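Sample intake sheet
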Amino acid sequence: MHTSEGGLISALVNMDQNERLLEIEFIYWDDGKGVTPDWSTLSIGSEPANYGPGAI
């Protein structure tokens, strides 16, 4: 997902041993101070995206 400032937000979804939602962690990949998610760019898939530091 992108921000209206042009940054990138990734989401990590963690499940417990019974495959129930345990937590959702949002990671903001920009040095800017404002974070306004652009929810229209949210995509949900089974494969992780290669965004941010350390992406291969």
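Comment: The CA atoms of residues 15 and 22 lie 5 Å apart. The chain has a mean pLDDT of 76.
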